Amino acid sequence: MSGSKRLIINCGASCVTAAILSPSGGGLQVERFVSESLHYDYSDDDAWQNAVAAALRDLTHTHKLSGTATLILPGSQVLTRPIRIPHVDPAKRAQPIAFEAQQNIPFQLHEVVWDSQEVSDDGVETEVLFVACKSAVINEFCASAAAAGLVVEHISAATLLDYNALQFAYPDEAEDTLLINIGARSTNLLFANDEGFFIRNIQIGGNTLTQSIADSLGKSFGKAEEVKHK
Q: Which domain holds residue 77?
């Protein structure tokens, strides 16, 4: 793959999709877009990683994909928290962010891989969105990608994609915006305006509806999923 092209693989709760993007006229062009469904019991959260590993192998083998890739984790695997810190130089933010984050997350920082994105900065105080994922999940995720012949260049969180896509597509949008992205396991709510943004990930998604159908009809989760799509 040429240096100007990027392979992006979105590992969701129900499918894995891959896109090859290239710059074109100040924008992006989708050169290829392929998808593989995940085959596992959606009610079993622990089965997701193995299903993703199998889908990555199928995806790369069937569609001849290889090389460096940016992988995207679903919101159900990521913890996000808005954090406020005193205004400091961006190069010096890591320590105050880590201190504030440790007071607001249910894990020790050494148990997670984390990063942050600036939301707003008024010169006195900076608000950032803290994003973290358990190290064990990241390590297994990277191992699955390597086994499929991929080299992980970046890992991004799906919870940030909506905001980044909104900024890219509508850079001059100043009005209050609510963007709702409903996934299989969780739903991302994005509130954005010209002053910043707020992201909330709630653990309710398409699978919640499937389980409700299963309970109402007395069917298995798999059968209820078929009913939902009819």
A: 6-229
